[in-house]
Structure formats: C-alpha cells, structure tokens
Amino acid sequence: MTSLSPNDLVINKSVGTARTKRGMIEVYTDGACSGNPGPGGWGAVVRQGKTYLELNGGEPATTNNRMELLAVIEALQVVPERVSLRVYTDSRYVQKGISEWIHEWKRRGWKTADNKPVKNEDLWRQLDSLVVGRVIEWRWVKGHDGHPGNERADAMARAGLEWAKQAGKPVANVPPPLVTCQDSGASPTFKPILDIHHAKVYRGDTLVFSDLSFTLQDGEHAAVLGPNGSGKTTLLKLLAGEVHPVPLPEMSVRLFGDDRPNVWDVRRRLGMVSHDLQREYLTGAKGLDVVLSGFYASNDTYDHQRFSDAQVARARDVMDELGLLSLADRRFGHLSAGEQRRLLLGRALVHDPPVLVFDEPTSGLDLKACFQYLDLLRAQMRKDKTVLLVTHHLHEIPPEIDRVVLLKGGTIVADGAKAELLTDRQISALFECPTKLVHANGWYQAMPG
Questions:
Q1: Catalytic one among 8, 26, 59, 68?
Q2: Distance between CA atoms of 243 and 238, rounded to whole angstroms?
C-alpha cells in the first residue's frame, strides 16, 4: 500500500512524534455487513489538510465488527508510524476496545472478564501492534448523522461489500496517489451544476437509489415531485454532502464540475432551505444570528466564529430585502412558521450563492404566508439564480419552473417539460390515487379525481 510521503512530515524530536506540514492527520473509518454474518466491506479516508486518500475492501463472509476493525488496521498501515493521528469511528466496539478494554484483555491473556476468548483476537492483536508508539486520539462519531468524513467512509465500505459479494473472495484496493484539492479562492460557474450517473445511495442500511442519474444545468429552474418515501430527502442530502453514493466503477457524481467536491465549498455556492433545518434549528437563536449562521453553515452562531463588519452589514441588507429587520433580536422559537422560514431563506442568501434548493418551501404555512414566501422564491428566480424545488405539493411549483422530475420509489419515472408531465394521468399514477389538476395563471393545483 502507498504511504504518505515522509517529505510531508515535520518531526517533533522532544516527543518523538510527527505532524504533517498541513497539521494532524485525520482518519475516518467504517465497516458494513449484509446479514452480520454475511458479505461485508470496510472503508477509510485518510486526510491531511486538503490532501487525502481513500481505500476500501471486503470479504464474502464476515461480521460488521471485523470490518470496523479492518478499516482502522488498513488505514494505519498507510500512515507513517511517527505521525500523530485523530481517528474517527462510529463503532463503540472499536473506540472503547482499543482505548479501554484491550488493556484488561491482554492482562488476562486475551480473555474477557468471564474468561472467554476475546472475539476477533487476530485483528485486535494486529491493531494493538500498529498503535504501539503512536500518538492517536480516538474519536467516536454518531453514524449516519451527516458527518462528511464518516459518510464518505461508509460509502467506501458499502462499495467494498458489493465488490466482495461479486468477487466471492476477499478484496482490497491499492490506494490511489494522494489528491490535492486546489483552492483558487474563486468560485467559477460550471455547467452542469449537478451531474449524477448510475449512483447507488444508501441512508443508513436502507438502499434509496439503486441507479440514479440526474443533471441540473446552470441557470435552470427545476422541480422534483414525488410522494413521501420516494427519495426526495436523500437527494437533498446527496447535494449537501451529508450522504455519498457507493463508489462503484460505473458511478460518477460531479458538483459544480468537480468529482471530488469540497463540502464547504459546495455549501458556499449552494443555499438550501429545508423543512428538517427549520425543525432542528436552535430555538434560542436570535434573528440576526440565524442569518449570519449562513456564513458558516451552522445551527446558530458561536463564540469562536468571527463576523466582519461587511458580513454583518450583508446580513442586515438581506433581512431588509426580506422584510425581517424587525426580527433581528427575536428568538427563533418565538416566531411563526412563516417568519422562521423567511429567516432561513435569509440564511441561505447571505453569501449570495448561485444555486438555491428549496425543500417543501410552504409546508406548515397559512395561505398568506404561503403566497408571500412563493413571491420571495420567484424574486430569486428573476435574479438568474439556479433553483431546484423538491416537494410533493403541486401548488408550490411557480410558473417560472419549466422542468419537472417525477420521483417514485427511488426511481426517476419521468423527466421533462412541466406542461407534458403535470397531467391528470401522470400525477394519478405518481401518487397512486385518482387526481384532477386545475391550471390557472401558470400555477397547478390537485383535486380529487
């Protein structure tokens, strides 16, 4: 396996360890298993600053715990011994085993407290030999919770599982050369903005998309329409970098023209307003802080974050444009659903992204607030921003949107011009109920058929 270059290291002779010139190396690991026991895979991402490598593999008959352990073992083997590390895992078995339990196991001759052999002793011995003399911080993260490194490692593990299942024997990749992400400081516009081909995507253990292909062009206005459970939320999380497709040979995903997008760069260029964000946003946040939090894509603002006078002025300008200045000192939890939604729109707009994504934008709003919000959405379209609307409500699709994508059961069943797809027959089939559409002034509404 390929190791990180010694030229990237700075030795601290006083403690006998090393840090990379770009800072401490971070390692994200995960394992996956279908059946447990059954075919399984492991994945790891080794990152130093903006440079990283990915590795994975799998076995046709194994357990989830063995894959979790093997992910860490394989990752440690590609990193020089005298480098300080921070290892992230969503396995308590690994995190507690290596930092707490292993000392008693070794003292008892690799026996548990009830004098039984330690399971996976071969891998625990191997891991123990790899950590000797190293400086390692072991960090547990909650799995499938939107952590970018963990989600990427999970995708690599699932790819290893599929690979081993097809091969019928243990498999492992050879890590590619380290890839340095270029940071030019500019945010050029690429065409298309989103380009997905043959993506296989899981959320947790659930397969949502088995073969997703979807493209969104720069300057396009499109709506993704589908019933609950069709995959709309997973598509949004894929856009936001909160889930990743399984990296199979036939799969490709490019965001803003980049097949290895930096999640923070994506969030600067893409403003998202979602129902989940509104539900989860901290109720004690003040209105101005809600809008300012868009600069960091955070939930409220924090003491370690710094905002320039220009950023504060920009936030106030956005609030003024949206009619929100009177809410600057109001607590988020004390506001109406419509006021909250408008503040989150301000949060999405504060860094002036070229792309806006709306998730069920008028859900929970009364008639007046609904109409006001849709007016704000249409105003952004008139500013030539690319807009993607994800919904199951036809009345949320404004006249400016001319492309509609029908999504059902994780499959795009139709994609084309709005006038051709928003028909009684198409919508009745999509939602599996007789439906009659009413069309007026460029808007659509669904009625019982």
A1: 68
A2: 5
